[in-house]
Amino acid sequence: MEQFLGDGWKVHPAGGATGEAYIAQQGEQTVFLKRNSSPFLAVLSAEGIVPKLLWTKRLENGDVVTAQKLIQGRELKAFEMKENRVAALLSKIHGSSELLDMFKRIGNQPLTPYVIVENLRRQLQAYHIEDETIEAGMTYLFEMLESVRHEHYVVCHCDINHNNWMLDEEDHLYLIDWDGATVSDPALDLGLLLYSYIPKQDWEAWLSQYGIQLDPSLRGRMHWYVVSQSISVLLWHFGRQQFEEVQQLKLYIESLLKE
Question: Which Pfam families match (predicted)?
Fold first, then answer.
């Protein structure tokens, strides 16, 4: 990476799960580099959803490196997820026709409930898992398939953990790490956020800041996506033999199915 940038640049890994992110410094200039980042980073930057994109370059091996402004900020705390600005930014993302058009142009197919259930079924077969809690969860997902059909698709981030929400030095809020984003029902993002961070008695107020009302359809769809996502995360931990996390998620799924 240093040879690619030229003389005087010092490059250090920036951490993260993929190992593809770096901090590069040359004198007073510091940038955030990422190899093979999201192909719609330019749109996200133009809309102020991620820190400013400075340049994009293709390496000889075909990899693409992007450079963004390195913000001297901080991650949101869990309790800050209830704030108006979080609801406003997620509403802006879900309402962006530019983002949705970009996804469609690169051939992204919507992540429908049917696709989710089929993916989970294949994973369960591959792992040869037989478990009452997971079977009960899958039965619920199958039985509710028709009732959670929704025709309005948006770009969903799919990982709205508070660690991905960043405040810069000027208190501007960004949502970073778009590698897992897809086109789906906005209830996917909304359910994960509300169930993780917002007390149920505050859901209606939070959603009014986002710009919609909490009706039975939205409530049911959010619950469905949270159950499906919980099973997916459980399988991720199972594949890595992290059985303590698997047990915690089983208990969580059991509590969801009692609602």
Answer: APH
